[in-house]
Write a sequence for this structure.
């Protein structure tokens, strides 16, 4: 039998997107079905997981390889089957399923890296369940994907139609943020964001707004020293290199409509400084994007929602937005 032709990486924008199943006891399976119902065959993607975990009566078609997803009927979810050891009980994650949840992510990454899928979109996971059931050693998807990519330097972006924002520090207690906010760390975040806006978002000269850490951006040192000691000197140095940067700016005046028109992405100093404005502007439609990976990865900006899992109440809007953004980013990379 002749061997299959090697995948044409230049055609990545035409390939289907790989969607890892996430936590089966959460809303991941039902929003995958709902997203397929909403998008039809116009945006091909396939779900990696156990078909038994899909909602009762869900229309799906098993595929043997990703390329088959593009030919599946529009009203059926293409599924690359992967058996799990335990059933999915809504709201009650099974520890024995944890290794398979992790492997679904790794399998999706391998398919994208092999050129069989255009991009990766991940459904929400439960870090506590993965740690209990499989000793998962990573704070979340972002860090695990960076490890799978060979230790890539990555940052997290939250994006919606109205705002793109990147936190320089993420899952840290607020008391630990000042010590973690070094010039090297902040410079890496800015450079990765700047490069990604050019490559993945098609902005030839990105405009970045950099927030201060303290109230009123330190107000000349009377409310904190980090702006004068770390942020302002770095901004000045990178601006001298040609980057279009503004800051440090008071965070409380950065996110109203007129201010947002002056930049393409905001760099925030800590988790809530970034996530509160984007979730206020578009709670249902925001997307989590990992910048700095050698492949495109997006995710809905919400968790497993155990409290409503299995009830048919889950909103697929953020997953739909994540799939659309993955398609757009993959298309730009391959152009």
């Amino acid at each position: 039998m002749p061997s299959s032709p090697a995948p044409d990486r230049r055609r990545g924008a035409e390939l289907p997107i790989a969607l890892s199943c996430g936590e089966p006891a959460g809303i991941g399976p039902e929003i995958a079905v709902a997203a397929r119902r909403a998008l039809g065959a116009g945006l091909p993607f396939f779900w990696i997981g156990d078909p038994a975990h899909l909602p009762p009566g869900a229309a799906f078609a098993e595929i043997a390889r990703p390329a088959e997803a593009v030919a599946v009927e529009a009203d059926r979810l293409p599924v690359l089957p992967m058996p799990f050891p335990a059933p999915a009980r809504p709201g009650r994650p099974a520890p024995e399923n944890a290794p398979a949840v992790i492997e679904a992510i790794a399998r999706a990454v391998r398919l994208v890296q092999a050129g069989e899928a255009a991009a990766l979109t991940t459904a929400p996971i439960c870090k506590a369940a993965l740690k209990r059931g499989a000793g998962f050693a990573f704070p979340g998807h972002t860090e695990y994907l960076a490890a799978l990519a060979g230790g890539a330097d990555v940052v997290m972006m939250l994006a919606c139609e109205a705002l793109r924002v990147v936190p320089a520090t993420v899952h840290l207690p607020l008391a630990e943020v000042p010590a973690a906010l070094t010039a090297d760390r902040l410079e890496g975040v800015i450079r990765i964001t700047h490069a990604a806006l050019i490559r993945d978002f098609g902005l030839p000269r990105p405009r970045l707004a950099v927030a201060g850490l303290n109230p009123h951006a330190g107000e000349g040192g009377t409310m904190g020293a980090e702006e004068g000691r770390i942020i302002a000197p770095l901004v000045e140095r990178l601006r001298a290199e040609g980057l279009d940067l503004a800051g440090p700016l008071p965070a409380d005046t950065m996110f109203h409509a007129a201010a947002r028109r002056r930049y393409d992405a905001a760099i925030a100093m800590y988790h809530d400084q970034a996530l509160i404005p984007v979730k206020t502007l578009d709670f249902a439609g925001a997307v989590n994007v990992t910048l700095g990976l050698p492949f495109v990865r997006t995710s809905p900006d919400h968790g497993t929602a155990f409290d409503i899992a299995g009830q048919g109440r889950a909103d697929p809007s953020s997953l739909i937005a994540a799939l659309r953004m993955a398609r757009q980013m993959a298309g730009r990379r391959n152009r």
Remarks:
- The two ends are 34 Å apart (CA to CA).
